[in-house]
Amino acid sequence: MTRHPRMPGEPLVFVHVALVGEVPSRLAAVLPSAPPLPSVSPPSAPPPSASPPAAAASAAPPPFAPTTAAFYSISSPFSGLRGVPVGGLLIKQAAASLAAAEPSLRTFVTLSPVPGFRTWLTARLARQRASGGGGEDLSGEGAALNGLLQALSAAGLDETAPFSELGPLHGPISTGGVQSPEQERADAVRRSLVGLCARYLCRATQRQRALDPVAGFHMRNGAALIAIHWAANPSSYGLEESASIMVNYHYDMPEVEARHSAYVAKGVTELAASPEVWRLAHASGSLT
User: Fold this and answer.
1) How would you classify the pairing of strands 68-75 and 107-110?
2) Please, what are the domains in the chain?
3) Does residue 55 or residue 256 have the better pLDDT?
């Protein structure tokens, strides 16, 4: 958290971070677990002369050494601070402090929502329907939208299904093996939505800046978009805003200042993203 010198007793901004062993792909991996309920009848202590067997003592696991700091929430109790870019500085300060306190940390990432995705996609689908699914489309967006509409139709779903309940779409995207026709149809919808989300994050702009407010915040602070995850937040809120999708932004400390300067100077033309994210953004999304 951070405080103002004139309000030493009032935190201005909270940054929530989880220390984990890998880059998280779902919200449940970073949220604090509920503490175990106390035992009704605690076990009796061993006799004073008893000592643990040597084998049991040697089998004790080594202490956990986290390798990844995952920032998953930035919030402020003061509505007047909305839009004030204090969170980015706080992330950098927190990363420096964590690196000093936990030498095992090597990676600093976020697990972030995509709050503008549904609004953008709904508007794009409406425009696509109005044009009859045709028209000149040099960016490939029309093909991606048609691919989603085809996939939804084949799966027996309407356009709002991924934003209301996952239903048959619940579960991860398959990576191989034999699939039933139902699984293949669900996968086609999942892949289309993830591809369109990548296109939205990398290509949807306003004044040469990322249209998504969270993406713009992290890009402006020098982070890179490195991964997009399906079913990362299947809560009602996660479905409502982004069909359960969440993403990782990577704060590579030696590169942060250069990426910040490039984005401020040139906007999305210098947007930092992983090759996999760019591949998704460029994919047509069609079923053929």
Assistant:
1) parallel
2) 117-282 (3.40.630.150)
3) 256
